[in-house]
Design brief:
Blueprint (H helix, E strand, L loop, with lengths): L5 E5 L6 H12 L3 E2 L7 H8 L6 H17 L5 E4 L5 H10 L4 E6 L2 H10 L10 H7 L9 E5 L4 H16 L7
Helix pairs in contact: 1-7, 3-4
């Protein structure tokens, strides 16, 4: 399945955005951009110190991701971004109106255990609760899908591809 859509893989820290994003991009035949690479150093320093980002910290980061997405409009691409709040997703949509979201979702226990196993990432497990507190799940009027993060990366990616294909399939007329 090749896509011309730009897809934002979203969710709280530890859901697997950095793992699933490249796998999804490969399956869709489009480039991948790591959302963490768009953070200014000040954001990384703040999170490394265990301090959650506020909206003022996130706007420039979201604008940089939005600019990348806008540059891929009509060409396709996958980028990771927590995109925790509706206002953050709205900002990304303002930059790239056709963007689709893949919300990686799972329970706190599973995600926390995965975060504890990560090596060398700047986001400490201590910030996971603030991520869940900030999260505004993808709404029905937002273009995208919710994908459960239980299982292997390959299983999660396959679920994402299937869900995205269903978005591209027109609904059957009802009699």
């Amino acid at each position: 399945m090749r896509t011309s859509h730009v897809i934002v893989v979203m969710g709280v820290a530890g859901t697997g955005k950095t793992t699933i994003g490249p796998l999804l991009a490969a399956r869709l035949g489009v480039p991948y951009a790591e959302g963490d690479d768009f953070h200014p150093q000040a954001n990384i320093d703040k999170m490394s110190a265990g301090v959650p980002l506020d909206d003022g910290d996130r706007w420039p980061w979201l604008d940089a991701i939005g600019a990348w997405a806008q540059g891929r409009t009509g060409l396709g691409g996958v980028v990771s971004s927590s995109a925790l709040k509706r206002s953050y997703r709205d900002r990304l949509r303002a930059a790239a109106p056709g963007v689709l979201f893949v919300h990686l979702s799972g329970d706190r226990e599973l995600i926390g255990s995965r975060m504890q196993q990560r090596q060398g990432h700047f986001m400490p497990t201590a910030l996971l609760d603030s991520q869940f507190a900030t999260l505004q799940p993808l709404q029905a009027d937002e273009a995208g899908v919710v994908v459960d993060v239980s299982g292997t990366p390959e299983e999660i990616t396959a679920r994402a591809v299937t869900a995205l294909q269903a978005l591209d399939t027109p609904s059957s007329p009802t009699a």
